[in-house]
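sry for the spam today, last one i promise. struct tokens for design, 124 residues
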């Protein structure tokens, strides 16, 4: 069965950095796009970043563009989100997701499997 497990969240001061990891099991990882979404308390889940099946193409929400970098290591069945220049508004639970196809953008319904999330808190 496909399972995703996020790690790397924590508390960081504004301007700092964190690196999130998502380990995938139970599926041929390299065939599918991967994405990161986030959800703050009382708000809807929103798209942050996506990477295609090969890692050759990436797509970012305007709110994180230039600060976050998504990447993948297919040999390790792992996707990463490097977060730099963090802001208090980045505070949220971050979710890793696997897409239904080899390509995916920012719609949640493009993704078939989801992790449980990891908390990121950015202090001002």
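last one done:
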């Amino acid at each position: 069965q496909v399972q995703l497990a996020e790690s790397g969240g924590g508390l960081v001061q504004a301007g700092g950095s964190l690196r999130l990891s998502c380990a995938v099991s139970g599926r041929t990882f390299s065939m599918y796009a991967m994405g990161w979404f986030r959800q703050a308390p009382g708000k809807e889940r929103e798209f942050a970043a996506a990477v295609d099946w090969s890692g050759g193409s990436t797509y970012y929400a305007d709110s994180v563009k230039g600060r976050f970098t998504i990447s993948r290591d297919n040999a390790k069945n792992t996707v990463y989100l490097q977060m730099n220049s963090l802001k208090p508004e980045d505070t949220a639970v971050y979710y890793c997701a696997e897409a239904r196809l080899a390509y995916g953008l920012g719609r949640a319904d493009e993704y078939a499997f989801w992790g449980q999330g990891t908390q990121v808190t950015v202090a001002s």
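The chain has a mean pLDDT of 94. ok im logging off now
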